[in-house]
Design brief:
Pfam families: LMWPc. This is protein-tyrosine-phosphatase. Keywords: Hydrolase, Protein phosphatase. By secondary structure, the protein is α/β, with parallel strands linked by helices. The protein has a single domain, classed as Rossmann fold. 42% of the residues lie in helices and 14% in strands. It is built from six helices and four strands, in the order E-H-E-H-H-E-H-E-H-H. A four-stranded parallel beta sheet has the order 2-1-3-4, with helices on both faces. Helix 1 links the parallel strand 1 and strand 2. The longest helix has 22 residues.
Length: 154
């Protein structure tokens, strides 16, 4: 089983969106039994909160189920538990490395690393643009899934 943890600052916008997008893509391919997908935050400020209403609305608009995830903070033990720890931006990666105590097994990546453009996914908490975030998250998740299928499931 491939275990993927998506991580952003608060775990209410980008990482939950990525969690549900990736689960949707995996389910569409009939691979649900092969994956465990979750999300977490690097901060504590949103712990216990549900996904942002903008994330929920965008996922609803595109027909992707949005579950009842509650924000949690990434723990050091997550590094051992997951095969992929996927951050949304450079600050997330810095904080993920701090929480994990480093990345000796090269499990920590930015989501857009798997696309042909390695950049940050803008935080819609600040931009208000959930459409742009969704476009980047969908592209990143599609390419991450292809990478996993090629590298880990052949």
């Amino acid at each position: 089983m491939i275990k993927v943890l998506f991580i952003c600052h608060g775990n209410i916008c980008r990482s939950t969106m990525a969690q549900y997008v990736m689960q949707y893509l995996v389910d569409k391919r009939g691979l649900s039994d092969c994956f465990y997908i979750d999300s977490a935050a690097t901060s504590t400020e949103e712990i216990g909160n549900r996904p942002h209403r903008g994330t929920q609305a965008k996922l609803y608009e595109v027909g992707i189920p949005c579950g009842d995830h509650r924000a949690v903070q990434m723990k050091r033990s997550d590094y051992e538990k997951y095969d992929y720890l996927i951050g949304m931006d450079t600050w997330n990666i810095r904080n993920m490395n701090r929480i994990a105590g480093g990345d000796p097994e090269h499990k920590i990546h930015k989501l857009l690393e798997f696309t042909n453009r390695d950049g940050d996914i803008a935080d819609p908490w600040y931009t208000g643009n959930f459409d742009e975030t969704y476009t980047d998250v969908m592209e990143g998740c599609q390419d991450l899934l292809e990478h996993i299928l090629k590298e880990d499931m052949e």
